[in-house]
Amino acid sequence: IIAFPMKRFFNYGQEEANIVNIDDPNIKYMEKLDGTLIIVNYDFIADKWCVATRSVPEADIELTSDGNLTFASLFAKAISVISNTKYSFEEYVLSLDKNYTYNHELMTPYNENVCRYSAYDIAFICRRNIHSHQEDESFDNDFIRKVSVLTLSTFQDMIDYVAKIDPTKEEGTVVMDSNGNRMKVKNADWVAYSKIKDKFGFNDRNCMQLILSGKEDDVIPHCPDDIANHINELKNSLNDSVRRQIEIYHKLTSLVQAGDSKGFALLVQTDSRVYSPLFYQLFSGKAKSFSDFVNN
């Protein structure tokens, strides 16, 4: 075994989460951070410290179009920023034990999901011995903090706390019993925002389908600002395009007699600016507007 990060754990309400003993007198409630799990382990074969995420063993997926930033390099950059350039990644790992896999949560402006981050932050979660497979929270570092443990007395206190948090600042909590079993309890609004971002985000096709359905005003109030702005930009662009098409349509219809489908078709075919399916339906009366055309 080269690396053994945290075992996968599930959301409150899922059957797999029932393994957690919520009546455990030593139960812990910790902040659920909305970032990226960064796994740091020593590769004895390659003789070097490595960085991974859950889905990418080398953490080398490009985060920017220029290819200059990956999760590995972002983690290294965060270490430098948080330590005020006192430490590099190579200097940070000197304090780590090669027999352990270290789990961190990375939060930066470059890997936001729902929560917004204006600065760099790293939180240590736990480490696991790759030989005994035992997990512990032993960690001593001057600039990387540990995940916060919340001062909540009961499970219901935790549920009430999660319901009231600001989803742009916190995701929820992680509940862990004394046997190390974990489950996630997420704020309902955070879950809703996350689903909106997954479906729409900067996916122009899905955003345009939303706009064409006429339901964007129902969704936008629940979107993070960047997604809401993007949807509005697409909507404005669409409205401008439709306006120009309608202007061209009226100019072309002024050049032919009413009902002269053949003459109108010849004009449409010679004008590269037009969207012909819209024009034909408007001229034939099958659609009275762009909205009618879309919904037909």
What's the layout of helices and strands?
Layout: E1 10-11, E2 28-32, E3 36-43, E4 48-52, H1 71-82, H2 89-92, E5 100-107, E6 121-129, E7 135-136, E8 145-146, H3 155-164, E9 172-176, E10 182-186, H4 188-199, H5 204-213, H6 216-219, H7 225-253, H8 261-269, H9 276-284, H10 290-295
Parallel strand pairs: 1-10, 6-8
Antiparallel strand pairs: 2-9, 3-4, 3-5, 5-6, 6-7, 9-10
> Beta-sheet strand percentage?
15-25%
- Please tell me the overall pLDDT: 92
**Secondary-structure-derived class:** alpha+beta
Distance between the termini: 59 Å
Gyration radius (Cα, Å) is: 27 Å
Oligomer: single chain
Count all strands and give the number.
10
Helix and strand run = EEEEHHEEEEHEEHHHHHHH
Number of helices: 10
Profile the largest sheet.
6 strands, mixed
* Poorly predicted runs of 5 or more residues: none
Shape, principal axes of CA atoms: elongated
Residues in helix, %:
25-40%
Key structural traits:
six-stranded mixed sheet
Give your account of this protein's structure.
This protein has 296 residues and is of the alpha+beta class. Helices cover 35% and strands 17% of the residues. The protein has helices at residues 71-82, 89-92, 155-164, 188-199, 204-213, 216-219, 225-253, 261-269, 276-284, 290-295; strands spanning 10-11, 28-32, 36-43, 48-52, 100-107, 121-129, 135-136, 145-146, 172-176, 182-186. Strands 3, 4, 5, 6, 7 and 8 form a six-stranded mixed β-sheet that branches. Strands 1-10-9-2 form a four-stranded mixed β-sheet. The mean pLDDT is 92.
